C-alpha cells in the first residue's frame, strides 16, 4: 500500500490559497496576516501535516542529520556520550545516525564514507584503536565536511575537540593506589598511538615520579590495534603475574579492559585477589558490585557528548568559515569502592 503524505499543495487547495501563501504562513512570514496564519496553522494541525524532510533538505541543501562514529555502543562511556549527543541534536531538530567501528579502521572508513554519501551535515567521531593514519578523514574535512572529535582525538585535523583530563585522571588513580601502600603498580592500556593512551600513561608516570617510585617498562602492557579481546587480556594478566616480582596493584586505562582484567584475574590468579588493588577508567554504574572492588576514574560522558554536539552544530550553522578551534577538557572523578553513585 502506498503511503501518501499531505503536501502544501493539498492545504492550499483545501483553503483556496496559493501554495506560496501557505508556505509563508507555515514559516511565520511577516508579510502574511495573522488571520491567514491562524487559519493555515489550525488546518495543518487538524490534518497532522508535517514538512517533508527530503524536500526540505533538497531546498536548503541540508539533511539535518549528524553522523556519529564510536568504537562500541556497548561501552559504558560511549553509550552515555551518545545520550548527551542526542539530547542536544534532537532539541535542535537534527537526527542522529550512529555507527560502530568495533576498533577496526576498515569499518571506520566504511562508516564515514557511507555517512558522507548520505549527505550528513557533520560528523562526531572517536577514533578506533587502528586509526593511526586518518588521511581519509582529513580529506573530507579539507573538502568542507564539519567534523568534531571527542575522547580519542588526533592533531592531524584542526577542528574542535572534546576530551577528558586523561593525565589527571590517571595521576589521581595511580596516586590513590600508592596511598594504599602499593609500590609495584602495573599499567594496562590500549594501543600505544591513541591520544588517550599517551595522556594516561604520562599521568601514571607522573604519580610514580612524585612518590619516588621507579618506572618499570615491564609493568606496562599495551593492547594491540584491537586490544579489547578477552584472550589478549588473559595473556597480559598471565605475563604480569608470572614475573619474578609481580605487581601488587594495577591501573587500567580503558572501560572494557577493566572488567576484562577482573575476569582474567579470577580465572588465572585467584589467589592474588585478596592482596591486589585495582583502579581503572570505567563509567559502569555498578563498580561497587565488582569483586575485588575497583577504584573508578569516571568521565562526564553525557556532558562531553553534549559539548561535542553543540560545537558541531556551531560549525554546521556558521555563515562564515571557522578558522579558530577549541579543545574542551572535562574533569574526571575518582570513585573509590563503597561510594554511592547518583
Structure, explained:
The strands form two sheets. The chain has a six-stranded parallel beta sheet with strand order 2-1-3-4-5-11, sandwiched between helices. The chain has helices spanning 8-15, 19-26, 34-46, 53-60, 76-89, 105-117, 135-142, 166-179, 195-210, 230-241, 255-268, 301-317; strands at 65-70, 95-100, 122-125, 147-150, 161-164, 185-189, 220-222, 249-252, 277-281, 294-298, 327-330, 333-335. The chain has three domains: 8-51, Orthogonal Bundle (434 Repressor (Amino-terminal Domain)), CATH 1.10.260; 62-164 and 301-330, Rossmann fold, CATH 3.40.50.2300; 166-298, Rossmann fold (3-Layer(aba) Sandwich). Helix 9 links the parallel strand 6 and strand 7. The two termini are 49 Å apart. The model has no long low-confidence stretch (mean pLDDT 86). Helix 1 crosses helix 2. It is built from twelve helices and twelve strands. By secondary structure, it is of the alpha/beta class. Helices cover 42% and strands 15% of the residues.
